[in-house]
Amino acid sequence: MKTIISLMSAFLIGCVIAIVSSVFGLVVNPLIGGLATTGALTMSGVVSFVSGASQAGILCALQKQVWVADIMDNLFLGQEFIGRSIDDGSFINNSIVHIPQAGNAPSITKNRSSFPATIAERTDAELTYSVANFTTDPIRVRNFDEVQVSYAKRQSVLGEHSAALSERMGDEVAHIWAPTADAALVLRTTGAATADLAHGTATGTRLRLTKNDVAKMAKKLDKDRMPKQGRTLLLSPEMYYELFEVEQLILADVMGRVTLPEGAINRLFGFDIMVRDTIVTYNNVAAGAKKAVGAAAAATDCLGALAWSSFAVRHALGSIGVYLNEGQAEHYGDIMSAEVNLGASISRTDSKGIVSIAQGYVAP
Which runs of consecutive H residues, i.e. helices, occur in 75-181? Predict the structure, then answer.
C-alpha cells in the first residue's frame, strides 16, 4: 500500500513539474518525476530528469520573473496619471496598437415626410499608434545570489533604474497627450506676474494660474460633452501653489479632504488634481507649440499643464523584459538590464476631451 502511495505521489509531482517545465519550453515525461530505482520518492529523483543546462534555464527564467514582478510593482509609481486613460494593452500587434473605430452616427430626421430616405454610407476607420521601447543601461551586479532573495537588495540594484525608466515614460506620455499649435486647445494663464519660470535659462516673467483659468479648461470639456467623472488636471508644483493659497491647503488638511483617487491631491471644477514636476513645455507664441522631450532650453519657454477626460486619452503597456548575463569574468559579476514597451495616444483627431494651458508670456 505504501509503495502504491509513493508511486502515486511521485507521479503527481512529476506532472506538476512537467507542467511548470513546459512553460519554459522543456519536454518532460511525467512518469519520470521522482521515482528512484526502488520506487521510493527522493529529491535526487525529482531533479535528475532535467539536465544541468535545463535546470539552469529554469532557474534563470524564475529569477527573471522575480525582477519583472518588481518592475511591474513600481512601474507607474509617481506616474499614476497614466492609468487615468483607456488601456489598449490587449490590442498590441507587432508593436502597433490597432483600435477599430465606428464611423459617423446616422443623421436623425423628425417626422420624416420625404421617401425614400437618402441612404448614407458609413465609413469605419482604425486608430493606430506605435508602442515605444524604453531600456535601461546595463548594470553590474555582485553577489547576485544574495541580491536575488532580498526585495530590499533587489530594489537597491534596480530601484533607481526603474524610477528613471518610469519618469521618462511619464514625460513621453504627457507630451503625446498634450495638444499643440492651437489657441483653442492651448490656453494661456491670465493671473499676476510671477518669477516662477520653466528653468534657469528662461528670462522675464510669466503670468500666474488662476481659478478662472481652470474654469475655462473645465468649460472646454463641457462643450466637448465629456462625462463629469474621470476628469484629471495635471499641474506643475509652481502652478499648483499658485492656484491654492497656503492657508487654503492647511485648512483642507485640518478639516479633512474628500476621498480622492490614487495620486490625486485636490479637486476643483470637477477635476481630480495631480502634480508632476515636468508635464509639457511650450514656446511663447500665442498658439503655443509644445517642445519635444529633452529639447534644448530657451529663454522664452513656458510651463504647461494638461487636463483631460479619461475617455479622451489612451495608453498601451506591452512586454517587460529583464536580461541577465551571469558570471562575466571581465566584469567580476553579473550584467543586468531591463526594457519596457509602452505607447500612448489621444482618442480623437479633433482633440475633444483634452485641453492644456501654458504660462502667459511677459517679455523681459
Answer: 144-148, 151-177
Same domain, 169 and 44: no
Average pLDDT for 8-31: 44
Give the DSSP letter of residue 89: G
* Residue 167 near residue 78 (C-beta atoms within 8 A): yes
Q: For residues 296-318, give the mean pLDDT.
A: 97
- Asked if residue 185 and residue 289 are part of one domain, the reply reads yes
The pLDDT score that the predictor gives to residue 84 is 96
Q: Which residues contact 146 (CB under 8 A, 6 or more apart)?
A: 153
Q: Residue 216, Cβ neighbours under 10 Å: how many? A: 16
Let me know whether 323 and 299 are in one domain. yes
pTM, to two decimals = 0.76
pLDDT, position 247: 67
Total of domains in the chain: 2
The CATH number of the domain holding residue 284 is 3.90.1690
Q: Do 101 and 243 fall within a single domain? A: yes
What range does the domain containing 234 cover?
A: 52-364
Same domain, 161 and 195: yes
**Per-residue buried b or exposed e for 165-174, using 16+ beta carbons within 10 Å of the residue's own CB:** bbbbbbbbbb
Q: How far apart are CA 119 and CA 83, in angstroms?
A: 41
Confidence of residue 144 (pLDDT cuts 50, 70, 90): low
Q: Which amino acid is at 146?
A: E
